[in-house]
Amino acid sequence: MNRTFAIANQKGGVGKTTTAVNVAADLAIAGKRCVLVDIDPQGNATSGLGSEKRARGGSDAALTAPSKPEAWIETSRIDRLALVPAADRLSSAEQLLRHEVDRYRQLKRALEHMEDRFEFVLIDCPPSSGLLTLNAIVAADHVIIPVQCEYYAMEGLAQMIHTLDLAEAEQEGPGAERHFLFTMYDPAEPLAGDIINEVLSHFESRTFRTWIPRDPALSEAPSHGVPVIEYAPNSRGANAYVQLAREIMDATE
Question: How many C-beta atoms lie closer than 10 Å to residue 224's C-beta?
């Protein structure tokens, strides 16, 4: 049985894809069989692992042909880490799934067909509350919400929680467990402490102990098509994501 994590936030630029790529890589390096599912039409998680977005036949096929995982799973350059790459057709998700009776559960069905192949599934969501994100949340056991330690961090957080509530209403059982992750943390940022205190006042028990620092290496690694653990293994960002992966493993054992 695998553990499925959707990394989601309606606000862009909060470290969502960075988190998906690096947690997936670190779990695989730690010996876990993982797959990273990129359902963001931009395909940044796909390129972040050195692969290319497809025109079709990637995660779009997972949504439309969920019983054929051999057609849309590919290997990555990291042992034990597979990838379901993004595809151009994802940008037309509404049309893609318009004939599906239960269109919010298509990704869940796809993941059920590879349940025994992987111990962890990481889903990188687009920065929206649309059909793709709802598919990911309905399919997930856990949702990680990156919270940027900067001025606009709280913008859209209430909307994200509302989206989670909507997805939970689509579930047949309990909804995904929610987790909050502080990203781009810089102690010199004047509002960082205020943002952290605000989130902890409401969600302390659901917030990861690991905080991801602001680190240039995290921004540079994707341009090389590798996770930060390969690009700058001794960097603060690499160390933080290794620690986060360990925290996730400990919490789900």
Answer: 13
pLDDT of residue 98: 75
DSSP state of 226: S
Rounded distance between C-alpha atoms, residue 23 and residue 5, angstroms:
10
In order, the DSSP letters of 35-102 are EEEE--TT-HHHHHTT---BSSSSHHHHHH-TT-GGGT-EE-SSTTEEEE--BGGGGGHHHHTTT-TT
3-state secondary structure of 144: strand
Distance between CA atoms of residues 45 and 21, nearest Å: 6
Integer angstrom CA distances of residue 160 from 139, 150, 199: 16, 17, 14
pTM higher than the cut 0.90: yes
CA angle 237, 240, 244 (to 5 degrees): 135
Q: Can you list the domains of the chain with their CATH numbers?
A: 3-252 (3.40.50.300)
Q: Across the strands, what pairs with 115?
A: none
Residue type, 25: A
- 39, 130 in Cβ contact below 8 A? no
Q: pLDDT (tens digit, 0 to 9) for every residue of the chain, 253 residues total?
A: 579 999 999 888 899 999 999 999 999 999 999 999 999 999 999 999 999 999 888 999 898 888 888 889 999 999 999 999 999 989 887 787 877 778 888 999 999 988 889 999 999 999 988 889 999 999 999 999 999 987 777 776 877 888 888 777 766 667 889 999 999 999 888 888 888 998 999 999 999 999 999 999 999 999 999 999 999 999 999 999 999 999 999 998 8
